[in-house]
Amino acid sequence: MNNGWNFFKFGLIVTGDGERDFAPRLFKDLTSTGKCTFVILRQTGQRNPIGAKKQLAYIKTGKKIPDKDAEIICEARGWLLAEPSRHVIWLDDLESSQRQNAHSKFQRLRKAIDVVLARNPELRERFAVHFFVNMIEAYYFACIDVVNQVLGLSLSALETDCENIEHPKGELKRAMRNLGHGKSFDEKVDGERIVESIALEQVLNRPLHCRALRTLVAWCCEVIGEHRTERFQLSGGLYWDVTAHQLRSPPPVEKIGPLDPG
């Protein structure tokens, strides 16, 4: 996907507050290559799957996608057109209540992209849909030493996949309450300190974990011309079936599958 450009800009369309505030900094291991940067384009709020009844209503009016979805993609199209080295990621924080609807959520967002950019396949290729599962705070638990240092906790390292934590923000708040000093987890103040210190390489150092995030990082690495190596476990780690087909070079079939049950 690297077309001879030396530097790339990823524009993020995000749904959640944490993603708006901290997603670019989570990717600092990628920006440290000197090949790319990440910027927030827009926060949209959740865009949930469209049910059969509403879909029929759209068909009757002659619309293929909701007006709001079209507006979001049109705005991103203008940003993409400004420079051929720009790429866009629609980044959804997949909440646990919507986890079973991941494929449907993907289809809604991807359809909006494909409909609006139908006449420009080159732009469609520069636009992807990815997810944080479940919310950016899940990935804090992959760097538990940082969380403990910042929050004054003594949590044990997580043995299971952090993408399986039902409500990571709630877990952090509960752990703070258990200290009994009256303080709670502040997603802005504490989150900023944690994100500044965690390393994406550490988050992705377990090949069986973080399929959604690894697939996102692999897409970015394809764009900037980074080969799949043991870094981020891109060469041997698992990928997510919901988003992996957006990769220009799909991983081996045995490496692609659904997330473990949350």
What do these coordinates show?
The protein is an alpha/beta fold and 262 residues long. It has eleven helices and six strands. The protein has helices at 17-26, 28-31, 52-61, 67-82, 102-116, 121-125, 144-151, 168-179, 189-197, 200-203, 211-224, and strands spanning 8-14, 36-43, 86-94, 127-133, 239-240, 256-257. It has a four-stranded parallel beta sheet with strand order 2-1-3-4, sandwiched between helices. Helix 1 runs parallel beside helix 9. The longest helix has 16 residues, at 67-82. The protein starts with 7 loop residues before the first strand and ends in a 5-residue tail after the last strand. The mean pLDDT is 92.
What key attributes describe this structure?
262 residues; alpha/beta; four-stranded parallel beta sheet; two-stranded parallel ribbon; 6 strands; 41% helix
